[in-house]
Amino acid sequence: VTNPSPTVQYITEMEIVPGNRNIVHHVLVFQDTTNVPVANDSAYAGPGYVSFGGIGSNKAQLISAWVPGAGVYSLPSGMGIRLAAGARIVIQVHYPVGSGGQVDSTKLNIKFSPATLRNVSIAPVLNSGNITNGPFVIPANSVKTFYSQYTVPANVTVVSVAPHAHLINTKFEVFGVTPANDTLRFIRINDWDFHWQGAQNFQKPIKVPTGTVLHGIAVYDN
């Protein structure tokens, strides 16, 4: 889908509706200003094309996601996701092994604003790539806790946080420690449920100063 406007627009609400919840594991929504998705689609027989972890374009920008338990994502007043003029909106749907032959018609509902808003972007900064006690391996019959860290390079404002893990995760916590040694608490889940994920939208956006160290803690029971 291409941005219906020849100018920049801002997305203030987005709803991703899976068509077949039995096979839709998660959905990632990107905006892209290259012709790569079109070329990939044309080169692949059948609808869409296969691409693991993204849409195959190094210019793609993640703008939204759906996981089991997620609902409508609404941005705070005065904020929105900047959609470039002429950008293509491309969805990547993750189907598990054994989904062949089934039908899905996942759809995307978007609310646009003609006004110029403060841009909000998604930054998956705490991930398996910055685990401090890796490798990310959980042997059979073991319980392991992993820690990740990320130092914030500039003043930012956080409007929501969205932990993501799979079935053997049991606990999740994210917090930050500022240069003044204040603790910013983002989320703690003591009983992780893969089927009830989604983003935690804060009642008030949290200001995070430069140099704050973000910490992620995840416990897995294999």
Describe the protein in words.
- The chain is mainly beta and 222 residues long.
- Helices cover 4% and strands 42% of the residues.
- The N and C termini lie far apart (41 Å).
- The model has no long low-confidence stretch (mean pLDDT 93).
Count of distinct strands: 14
Q: What is the tally of helical segments?
A: 1
Distance between the termini: 41 Å
Based on CA atoms alone, the radius of gyration comes out at 19 Å
Shape: globular
Strand content: 35-45%
Order of helices and strands: EEHEEEEEEEEEEEE
- Profile the largest sheet: 5 strands, mixed
Mean pLDDT: 93
Classification by helices and strands: mainly beta
Helix share, percent: under 10%
As residue ranges, the low-confidence spans are none
Give descriptors for this structure.
globular, five-stranded mixed beta sheet, mainly beta, 222 residues, single chain, four-stranded antiparallel beta sheet
Provide a compact summary of the structure.
The protein has one helix spanning 36-43; strands at 9-17, 26-32, 61-66, 73-74, 79-83, 88-94, 107-113, 118-119, 143-151, 156-161, 169-177, 183-189, 200-208, 213-221. The protein is mainly beta and 222 residues long.
Question: SSE layout and pairings?
Answer:
Blueprint: E1 9-17, E2 26-32, H1 36-43, E3 61-66, E4 73-74, E5 79-83, E6 88-94, E7 107-113, E8 118-119, E9 143-151, E10 156-161, E11 169-177, E12 183-189, E13 200-208, E14 213-221
Parallel strand pairs: 5-8
Antiparallel strand pairs: 1-4, 1-5, 1-7, 2-3, 2-6, 9-14, 10-13, 11-12, 11-14
